[in-house]
Every structure is written in structure tokens, then in C-alpha cells.
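Q: How would the C-alpha cells look for this protein?
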Amino acid sequence: MGTKRRLGTAVLATGLALAGMTATAPTAAAATCPADRLCLSEYYDLNTIHATIASTKACVSIAGLGPYDFEFGIASYRNNLPVKAAVYSKMSYGYKYDGTIQPGGASSNTYGNFGLSGLICTGGATP
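A: Here is the predicted structure in C-alpha cell form.
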């Protein structure tokens, strides 16, 4: 085996080893959501919890919470409540239903426009 070939093999092996180290490096851990709460974040991956909801039958405004008042919506969530949570965005005419978060449900990326400065209604409560 020639010197160039050995050098190329060594470089390739080193590159693969480094790539493996990068691929297995730990990612930031998600923030811990209490067992009896619905946790919401304006950031993806639920790294920071900006609002928690404990009520199992009420509508709670999320406008005014978090660093951006949830103006850009809920980016991630975890529902540790035993009930569904309906999500509504605030509109000029009232509230628009966006979807439901199931009990035990979680998302690290809602892809935006989910609960824009709106309401979270738990346990069948409505706005």
C-alpha cells in the first residue's frame, strides 16, 4: 500500500470517527414538564417552558405570557393533563379554533400559527 493510499485511508477513518462523535453528541434536553400540567413554549424543542396550565376545565389566555406574548404561536408543547386541550388563535373578530392537544400529547415543532396570542381551553370548556 502506497504512502498516499495509507494517508487517504487514515484521513477517511479520522473523518468517520469525528462524524460519529458529532452524530452521537447529546442534544439540549427538553425542559421538565410537571406531571399534572400542560406546558407550552414559544421555542421549538420545549427547551424553555413559557406557560403551564393546571386547570382541567377552563379557558386560559396565553396572550401576555412568554417573551413574545405567544404572538407567533405555540412552537412546542407537552400535555400531562388527563384532558384534551383545544387551542384557539386570537383574531380581530374573536377566536379561531386551531386544533386539539390530546392527553399525553407532545410536539417539539408545531410549525407555527398555532395558538397565536390566543386561548387554551381544557376539558371541553369553550371561549
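Strands lie at 38-41, 51-53, 59-61, 76-79, 85-91, 94-101, 106-107, 119-122.

Confidence is low (pLDDT under 50) at residues 3-29.

Upvote if useful.
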